[in-house]
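Sequence design from tokenized structure. All designs in this work follow the same two-part layout: the structure record, then the generated sequence. An example of the structure record is given first.
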């Protein structure tokens, strides 16, 4: 029974999604269903899943080697090779599932207020629960093949939710872009799975057997598998060069952005690398490459965020940047540090998006920060909670982001990857700068002439902000380093996967910590000088390479999209029309001519029918005479 509860963590939101889908169909075809009924199932499923994860927590704390398995059924059996629909709960998957369900539940509560007047309320929660179930399947899968089902599930659900307002063509285009770009990354994942199966799957395709199977494989094979897997992670977690879908994904409702960026989807790539740590430990050179991609992605996104005007797109680029930090850590083997930042990021990023959503609702869905301003007194709760989240993402102690980001930078420095460390340090400056640029403009800028009356926020939108503010303030305390008198609970809980940082004295560690804080404070000071009490009658400068996001979309448009269009036109004219169509039409001409001959026989003229009958009788008679003459 205990093992079945592991599967129930996934099944509860999945069954809820199925029920909500059927209920919505009933609603649109037969009779209107009240929203509270959708709330009952949509909000209870993630909460019950969270309670189940809490049930397992003391069991995991007492026994560090304890792992729960549950096999639902045999999914595939090919010549005696079995692949089961199996679930696995170890310390890593438990930790991930805990904050996915908890933060996901808070986002569901928030969404119930945000989407209250939407005509597709039931459909939205169907997608939302299915999204959460897919992410939980990805995390709790006992094999990479089952993980891939959840991996594709979050991709499909993101497409549904990003293009939720499908009557606007731009939203559909954004959903298509996210779906297609992720398919590019998923191709790498599929290639990795095939190669992994061929070389290491002889004894089983679950993680335990694969960890044994990869031992002794040629370094070239391991490198190929590791790089192919990382291509999948780049797509899902929006790193260079497959990051272009993430800002466009802001087309969906704001609760969707919060769920994608805080609890699901984009963190899947980081989790996948950590889950395959048994592989990446054998190819440290690939890990260093991952770390460099993360560092450059972090700085690249932070630079772009400094020039954005859409509040949600600023936060989208901040997510890409923070994911870069996570990859910096896991690439260097500091797996617990990367997961620690995934954890703290879930709280302050959910709070930032939900605070932004509250502002957008209050301002009748305005998203341009230069059309806001002076909201401190008019939205005091939103201002206070977003300040906490902004301090957390900026790495200011004692807020959550400080502890996890400091550990990432320390790991890079201790491993003598000074370029990665420096890129992370520069990114920390730009992070605090662009986040406080947003904060000062939205809440303290003057001369805003766009809004005189604000929409009222519902209680279901306010309460999650308060809870997440506490998380953004206190969640970092589970990873207080020993130099500050802590025990680094998160590192110990995850079996101390953090790469040892030998060679760094406590004095140097404290010095590096102080430098990180100083850099963040300088970023805040620069933002304060430029944007506190900013005059909104001044038009922002909307030009330059950074404003145009380094022209990456334009480059992709010219190289790939136009190239594919030209190629499709070539095939349409030269292959489809001139070869395939001609072959098909020429073969059909014979049938057309035969039909024309037969149609002449169906003239409805009696004398023609009599002639045809006489010809037929004559042919049969001649045939019989010949046959009988031959026999006789």
């Amino acid at each position: 029974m205990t093992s079945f509860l592991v599967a129930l963590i996934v099944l509860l939101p999945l069954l809820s999604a199925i029920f909500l889908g059927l209920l919505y169909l009933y609603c649109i075809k037969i009779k209107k269903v009240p929203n509270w009924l959708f709330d009952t199932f949509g909000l209870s499923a993630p909460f019950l899943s969270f309670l189940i994860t809490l049930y397992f927590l003391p069991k995991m704390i007492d026994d560090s080697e304890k792992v729960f398995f549950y096999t639902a059924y045999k999914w595939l059996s090919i010549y005696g090779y079995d692949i089961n629909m199996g679930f696995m709960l170890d310390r890593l998957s438990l930790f991930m599932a805990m904050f996915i369900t908890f933060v996901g539940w808070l986002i569901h509560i928030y969404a119930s207020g945000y989407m209250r007047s939407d005509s597709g309320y039931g459909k939205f929660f169907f997608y939302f629960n299915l999204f959460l179930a897919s992410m939980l399947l990805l995390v709790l899968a006992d094999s990479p093949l089952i993980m891939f089902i959840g991996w594709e599930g979050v991709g499909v659900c993101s497409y549904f939710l990003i293009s939720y307002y499908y009557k606007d063509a731009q939203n559909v285009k954004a959903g298509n872009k996210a779906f297609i770009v992720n398919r590019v990354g998923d191709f790498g994942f599929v290639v990795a799975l095939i190669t992994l199966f061929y070389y290491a799957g002889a004894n089983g395709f679950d993680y335990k057997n694969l960890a044994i199977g990869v031992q002794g494989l040629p370094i070239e094979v391991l490198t190929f598998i590791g790089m192919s897997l990382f291509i999948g992670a780049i797509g899902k977690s929006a790193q260079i060069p497959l990051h272009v879908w993430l800002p466009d994904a802001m087309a969906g409702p704001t609760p969707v952005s919060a769920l994608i960026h805080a609890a699901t989807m984009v963190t899947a790539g980081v989790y996948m690398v950590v889950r395959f740590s048994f592989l990446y430990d054998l190819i440290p050179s690939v890990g260093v490459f991952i770390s460099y991609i993360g560092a450059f992605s972090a700085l690249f996104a932070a630079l772009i965020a400094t020039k954005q005007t859409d509040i949600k797109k600023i936060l989208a680029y901040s997510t890409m940047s923070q994911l870069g930090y996570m990859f910096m850590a896991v690439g260097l083997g500091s797996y617990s540090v990367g997961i620690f930042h995934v954890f703290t990021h879930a709280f302050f990023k959910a709070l930032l998006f939900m605070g932004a959503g509250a502002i957008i609702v209050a301002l009748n869905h305005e998203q341009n920060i230069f059309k806001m301003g002076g909201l401190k007194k008019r939205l005091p709760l939103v201002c206070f909670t977003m300040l906490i989240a902004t301090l957390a993402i900026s790495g200011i102690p004692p807020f959550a982001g400080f502890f996890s980001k400091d550990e990432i930078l320390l790991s890079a420095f201790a491993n003598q990857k000074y370029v990665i460390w420096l890129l992370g340090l520069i990114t920390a400056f730009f992070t605090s700068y662009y986040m406080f640029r947003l904060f000062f403009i939205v809440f303290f800028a003057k001369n805003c002439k766009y809004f005189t009356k604000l929409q009222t926020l519902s209680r279901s939108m306010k309460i999650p902000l308060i809870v997440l503010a506490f998380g953004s303030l206190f969640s970092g305390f589970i990873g207080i380093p020993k130099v500050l008198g802590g025990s680094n609970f998160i590192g110990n809980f995850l079996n101390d996967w953090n790469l040892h940082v030998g060679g760094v004295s406590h004095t140097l560690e404290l010095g590096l910590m102080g430098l990180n804080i100083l850099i963040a404070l300088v970023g805040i000071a620069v933002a304060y000088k430029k944007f506190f009490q900013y005059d909104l009658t001044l038009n922002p400068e909307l030009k330059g390479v950074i404003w145009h996001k380094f022209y990456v979309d334009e480059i992709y448009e010219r190289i790939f999209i136009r190239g594919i269009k030209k190629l499709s036109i070539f095939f349409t004219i030269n292959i489809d029309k001139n070869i395939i169509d001609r072959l098909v039409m020429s073969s059909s001409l014979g049938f057309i001519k035969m039909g024309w001959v037969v149609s002449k026989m169906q003239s409805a003229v009696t004398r023609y029918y009599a002639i045809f009958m006489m010809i037929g009788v004559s042919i049969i008679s001649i045939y019989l005479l010949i046959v009988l003459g031959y026999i006789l």
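The chain has a mean pLDDT of 89. We note this feature because it recurs in several other targets discussed in the main text.
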